[in-house]
């Protein structure tokens, strides 16, 4: 049987796992944060250093990566919400102008 050696990079795996934990932490506390707020990074650093006991030399970089990922996902979610609101507005504007075509859609089941 041919065996394939698995090459693992434990440092990379550890960093990725800690980054995911930090992103999850930020999402749990999402209501307390504003995007771009310095406090987001500080809270993330404290969580990594105190709760997860990440070594001090890794905390800053992992926190920066986690905050960037958090802000990216938050921004994408807001963009999706805005698109949905715009689509709903178009639908209701058309429904107001031609209510006879849309009245079946508005009835409760």
Task: Summarize the entry for a quick read.
With 109 residues, the chain is mainly α.
What's the topology here?
Elements (H helix, E strand, L loop, with lengths): L9 H19 L9 H14 L4 H42 L1 H8 L3
Binned, the helix content reads over 70%
Let me know the average pLDDT: 78
Task: Domain count, please report it.
Answer: 1
Class computed from helices, strands and strand pairing: mainly alpha
Residue runs with pLDDT of under 50 for 5 or more positions: none
Major β-sheet annotation:
none
- H-E order: HHHH
Strand content: under 5%
Q: How far is the first residue's CA from the last residue's CA? A: 61 Å
Number of helices: 4
Describe the global form: elongated
Please tally the β strands and state the result.
0
Radius of gyration: 23 Å
Key features of this structure:
109 residues; mainly alpha
Please characterize this protein's 3D structure:
The structure is a single chain. This protein has helices at residues 10-28, 38-51, 56-97, 99-106. With 109 residues, the chain is mainly alpha-helical. It has one domain.
